[in-house]
Write a structure and sequence with these properties.
alpha+beta; four-stranded antiparallel β-sheet; 35% helix; globular
Length: 444
């Protein structure tokens, strides 16, 4: 009887899937073979079966190469995928593994592999099987000094630029782990218990054991309404060229914690990186902004002038962490400096505009000179057959974020769409396509 009740409990959650999953393309599911992810796969398959327009399901399984039984686990996932009629892709974490920080390294590698595979399958949403138990475990671990974050129902992929345009959906955060296992027993599906989950050397394993017999609070379902960002961005900002501009009066009216979050995200996105700033550095910069001096954070240049705070790429930082050059292959999208996605019809090299202005033609030099000085050295330039051409996505009179084409090279600025995604403005699948982000974000 209990199994039937638990299955009914899960089915009542199916109605919530459509709140986020309102697209019609392939839907990705990360499945390890454990009970949580196997249950998610069958739940999604059951929901999908009832849809008027059924969607292709794509199952991704990451073999970390850390357990001799992992090939068998991967095969079990392939069998589950076949049972529900889903596509299946096995992914492998290759190379040497770190002696310390293995868990964090495995997580980053896993997310990078999943994001790359999702993009290859034209999948913009990847479903993950975190539960109410995971939220409770994370809270206990943070109280013991861990910096583990709380899983969110909906969030952008944490890896960049591999995860661009890929969102993570965790629909089971209000479901207990044991409920999922009762559901699997009811439908006759097997799962694997990873022995590492019981290793007392692991903080998460110890926490899981501690909470196993305890009542876990079920958090309210996240509101799908995006956070209010009304009036924060200048209407005439140069977003299409990678600059984010805040209205200072609106920014300083925000609660300090929220202002710091906005500032941190803007700096990371404008800088093209993937590492958040240290708290002390962020607070110091926040306090110094009103002085009007040029400040730097996470590879970004920040400055307040009157009622405008501009955040753009720090030109001198380009090439400091990675090569400033990018060799494009014909027809293959690649990301330059973490900020611009480019697809070229012919092979060419991309380099920063800083230091090559003298090699540009008169029209390109004029276009650069019309821009704020902070932007002139941070834009992509193509080089082919010893000729250099500015790939300026947008201009002072044209701030459209839609992709543009220059010399048969498609250029998409990722900075502002990435910022909006980080700030929770992209709340459902139909908003993810990069060409539609500006429509969603207009008026915010």
């Amino acid at each position: 009887m209990r199994g039937g009740l638990e299955r009914a409990r899960l089915r009542s959650d199916f109605t919530h899937f459509a709140e986020r999953l309102d697209g019609d393309g392939p839907l990705g599911v990360a499945v390890s073979g454990g009970g949580d992810s196997v249950a998610l796969l069958y739940a999604l398959a059951e929901w999908n079966q009832k849809n008027v327009k059924r969607r292709p399901l794509e199952v991704f399984c990451v073999d970390h190469g850390l357990n001799p039984l992992s090939p068998q686990w991967t095969q079990s996932v392939a069998d589950h995928a076949a049972r529900v009629g889903a596509g299946f892709t096995a992914l492998h974490w290759q190379g040497d593994k770190p002696a310390s920080g293995l868990s964090a390294a495995a997580r980053l590698a896993r997310h990078a592999l999943l994001a790359q595979a999702a993009r290859q399958k034209s999948t913009s949403v990847l479903c993950l099987a975190h539960t109410a138990d995971d939220i409770a475990e994370a809270a206990v671990m943070r109280r013991q000094g861990s910096n583990v974050g709380a899983p969110q129902v909906w969030s952008p992929s944490p890896v960049w630029p591999e995860g661009r345009g890929v969102f993570l959906y965790r629909p089971l955060l209000d479901i207990r782990r044991e409920t999922l296992r009762d559901y699997l027993r009811e439908i006759g599906a097997s799962w694997i218990d990873d022995p590492s989950n019981d290793n007392p050397a692991s903080l998460r394993a110890r926490t899981r054991s501690l909470l196993r017999e305890q009542e876990v609070p079920i958090e309210a379902r996240e509101n799908i309404t995006p956070p209010d960002m009304t009036g924060l961005l200048h209407a005439d900002n140069l977003a299409a060229l990678g600059m984010i501009a805040f209205r200072a009066d609106v920014f300083y009216a925000l609660p300090p914690e929220l202002a710091l979050k906005r500032l941190s995200a803007a700096a990371v996105c404008a800088g093209g990186g993937d590492k958040l700033p240290k708290r002390a550095r962020l607070e110091h910069l926040y306090a110094c902004l009103p002085d009007g001096k040029v400040l730097t954070l996470c590879g970004a240049r920040l400055q307040q002038q009157e009622n405008c705070i501009t955040i753009s790429r720090e030109t001198g930082d380009i090439g400091r962490q990675t090569s400033p050059f990018l060799d494009l292959e014909p027809g293959v999208e690649a990301v330059w400096d973490g900020r611009f996605a480019l697809v070229a019809a012919q092979a060419m090299r991309i380099l920063p505009s800083q230091g090559v202005r003298v090699d540009l033609d008169a029209a390109d030099r004029k276009a650069l000179n019309a821009l704020p000085a902070a932007l002139r050295g941070s834009l992509p330039v193509s080089e082919k057959d010893h000729q250099k051409k500015l790939l300026m996505h947008g201009a002072p009179a044209n701030t459209s974020l839609t992709p543009a084409t220059y010399n048969k090279t498609r250029v998409t600025c990722l900075v502002t769409p990435r910022f909006y995604a980080a700030m929770g403005q992209i709340t459902r699948e139909s908003h993810i396509d990069s060409d539609s982000w500006p429509v969603v974000c207009n008026g915010v």
